Amino acid sequence: MKSVFMKRAVTLIVLTMAVGFASAQDTIHLRRADTTAKKRVERLTIGGYGEATYRYNFYSDNAFRYSYADRYANSKGHGQVDLPHVVLMLGYDFGKGWSMGTEIEFEHGGTEAAVEIENEETGEYEQEVERGGEVALEQFWLQKSFLSNKLNVRVGHIVVPVGATNAHHLPTEFFNVFRPEGENTIIPCTWHETGISVWGQAGGWRYEVQLLPALNSSMFNVQGWAHDASASPYEFRAANKLAGAFRVDNTSVKGLRLSLSGYVGNTFNNDIVTEENSSTYKDVKGTVVYGSFDFCYKHKWLVLRGNADYGYLGDAALISRYNNYLPNSSSAPYPHTLVGRSVCDGALEFGANLLPERTNRKLFLFARYEYYDSYNPAYVISNGERVPLSDYKWTERHVFSAGLNYYPIPQIVLKGEFGYRLLAQQYNNEPWVSLGICYSAFFKR
Questions:
Q1: Global pTM?
Q2: What backbone phi and psi angles, to 5 degrees, belong to 48?
Q3: For each of the chain's 445 residues, which pLDDT tens digit applies?
Q4: Most buried of 13, 35, 214, 265 (most Cβ within 10 A)?
Q5: SS (H, E, C) 71-104
Q6: Mean pLDDT score of the chain, rounded to an integer?
Q7: Bridging pattern class, strands 412-422 and 396-409
Q8: d(CA 193, CA 185)
């Protein structure tokens, strides 16, 4: 009897220990799973920025307001509301130096389309566009970091940090309601390409060099020079020609950032149409060289920013001629305008915080001056003399603006602005007022 009892007791003890051990193991596994999930969440970065704006222009928006300026001298103007940029940013740290980043941008409210039944047209189904705009994957990259961030290799769709605005395009990084006008006119902004970037930071220095698809000279135009030259209407981006870009920042002096950036690449025939058998264009390269210097100084209540940019396009006269004969139809994307051989931009802005430093709120009074020209005509040789192509004086502009930026908290800004665009004497000047509210923040990092 004792033997049976002892066997049952031992069996019960063993089972109890097994259940307890299994329960402990489950608890350990749950804790480990919980810890792993927590670490994964901690590695996730979520952020974004957005802008909502109102603007009233006290001038005509007619396409011929420069060609026939007298007809539009007394225009009553026009108002506009917009969502210029709404962006969602996602990033993840995989560990062991590997990370990724994405940025999805909705411009001007994105795009809206719907299929509707038209009762007035015998019940036909029709697709209608309800709102214009763009949705773009502005960034998508994978990165491997070495040497404590002194060396990083990034591959994928990346921002090209040429110029002050491309490197600092968040709405909390400039005073105007809209992005600074000059750089936003003459080069892509925000400029993003699929390529390779090598960058790093050590002490007060940060460097970056990039290998990218070159711009497309067929998309250059008189009003915006290279602004649309990185765009592609196709499902792919032509990369028959490659280009290089760089940026160097120095922050050795407290409160001061000095930056130099640039781009160089051949742009001719970097398109879906690449064969050009005419001897006229056999040596055309369309080399673009673009350089920019910008700075930012912040000290207590003061912010001072400025930039100077210059761009040059080789073979501009022949490219202007070539572009004029490109396909011309509703489905063809080409602008068919003359192309400037050079462009320039220079700006200086000043901001003063009117509220005491001890408060978290800020109220900046700002003023900005900018000069830019999106078209400096190319020359052709006629009878042994250099003769400029048609000049368009309206592309040369002096822009004055002033206003207020109120920060109730650091991530949110309410903006008000008055601006005045001064053109050559034969044209009508262009004043406006703008209001905006914007944010820029990391929701989790």
A1: 0.86
A2: 170, 175
A3: 545 555 555 555 555 555 455 555 555 555 555 555 566 678 999 999 999 999 999 999 998 999 999 999 988 899 999 999 999 999 999 999 999 999 999 998 877 665 555 554 455 555 566 666 788 889 999 999 998 889 999 999 999 999 999 999 999 999 999 999 999 999 999 999 999 999 999 999 999 999 999 999 999 999 999 999 998 878 889 999 999 999 999 999 999 999 999 999 999 999 887 566 678 888 899 999 999 999 999 999 999 999 999 999 999 999 999 998 888 876 678 898 999 999 999 999 999 999 998 888 999 999 999 999 999 999 887 777 777 888 899 999 999 999 999 999 999 999 999 999 999 999 999 999 999 999 999 998 7
A4: 214
A5: HHCCCCCEEEEECCCEEEEEEEEEECCEEEEEEE
A6: 88
A7: antiparallel
A8: 18
- 27-45: string of b/e by CB count within 10 Å (b at 16+)? eeeeeeeeeeeeeeeeeeb
Alpha carbon of 205 to those of 20, 99, 208: distances in Å?
58, 22, 10
Place of tokens 């000049």: 391
Residue 442: both structure tokens together: 């990391």
* Both structure tokens of 297: 């100084």
Structure tokens at 338: 């003359």
Q: Over the stretch 153-193, which tens digit does the pLDDT of each residue have?
A: 999 999 999 999 999 999 999 999 999 999 999 999 999 99
